[in-house]
Amino acid sequence: MSNELAQKSIGELAPLIQSKQLSPVELTEQVLANVDLYDGEINAYIAVQKEQALEAAAQAEQEIQSGNYRGALHGIPMALKDILYFKDEKATMGSSIHGDFVAGFDATVVSKLKMAGVTFTGKLNMHEYAWGATTTNPHFGPCKNPWDLTKIPGGSSGGSGAAVASHMAIASLGTDTGGSIRIPASSCGIIGLKPTHGRISKYGCFPLAWSLDHIGPMTKTVYDAALLLELLSGYDPKDPTSVDRPAKKFSGLLEGDVKDLTIGIEEEYFFKNVDSRVDEQVRLVLKQLEEAGAVIKPVSIPSLKQAEFAELVTITTEASAVHHANLLKSPEKFGEDVRFLLEVGELMSGVDYVQSQQIRRKLDLEFAAAFESVDVLISPTLPFLSPPIGSQTVDVNGQELSFLDEVIRFTGPGNLTGLPALSIPVGVKEGLPVGLQIMGPAFEEEKVLMAAALIEQMELMKGHAPNLETN
């Protein structure tokens, strides 16, 4: 069976489904056929729900045939990270401790996707409890990068990144506490959007760190990310961190003139110690944007030099608070890497935590000041290319550096400040995708999406795709 349909985006598929030229059943069958073909190697899924998906697709087809079309997501096959609750279904969080946990309600985002008529094909692999960036899961096996099966797909939403990149899902959702949407998006060559903190409800998502957690779309195109963002946005009284801001028609706000775009560059932090292959590709994009009429402007955010300390203390402390009882009771049930990080969190002091929150406040003010003179900030998403599975180090210009130290250097500030940030693929180096990060002002995702749409029009990924047939 050709998987040509499964390679298409929501934006391409929705008109075909609405006009009844494409059957949701046929589309779902193609996606599931790809799961059969590729997932034995890639291991993006924790659980595949074939019968359930085909029944849902048949129902979607019947509804559309009878004139009850619900919108662009109706009949679209998606699979979600196994940290989001579905009523009366298992949510493992990629763990053994919660391996048999059954949720008693739908997550708010799941409820919205159900109302939109999405077909769910299964639950996706992830780093245990979302506390890591490799998706080398000790309980469900490592997820592999579709571009190179010897490399990590990034994490913690690695299954989401791998599934979308290999067309085993048309789109997905991930969670992001230090970069867990953007890191796998960069590693797998797809779009990953972390919205403003509070824009999308986290009710029904198992927490990693309350003040840093986000949910966001992982898609094939910028338009698809915008579609999902507008569907999932909105105030939710069930989530104490939800902010009462009306949803915008983001998918209609992608048009823009590059000549009206002012791009901020923070050289001291966001371009320091970057692998030359990544640096070259990101600077090429900046040069092309400038030649097309964009203004490139240097900015200074001095408190970024303290961001790694603030992110480390905040995420480890809050995560250890979530897992404190289980860490005392059953430490052996955690994977070795997660257990280590939870133990580190137990060592942090109240002074460390308060100092971290003071740094966050300074960062908020400095980023806000920067955005008074620029529309967006651009940087690499990751300072390196995806390393081999099992490696504790990354190669940056011939230097072997700690993966843990390097992986959230550029993504973490977006979590500390809660600002919207998106990773977009901008080329391939040595067979692996390179991601570019765009950050914008709070609750102005349209600026980030518009800049991403302008970059997408450059077609930097044209001719590049995971070589799934030979993997």
UniProtKB/TrEMBL annotation:
**A Pfam family recorded for this sequence:** Amidase
Q: Name one GO molecular function term.
A: catalytic activity
Which residue range or ranges hold the Amidase domain? 26-449
Family the entry assigns: Belongs to the amidase family.
Which PANTHER family does the record cross-reference, listed alphabetically? GLUTAMYL-TRNA(GLN) AMIDOTRANSFERASE SUBUNIT A, MITOCHONDRIAL, TRANSAMIDASE
The entry's protein name is Amidase
**From what organism does this protein derive?**
Planococcus plakortidis
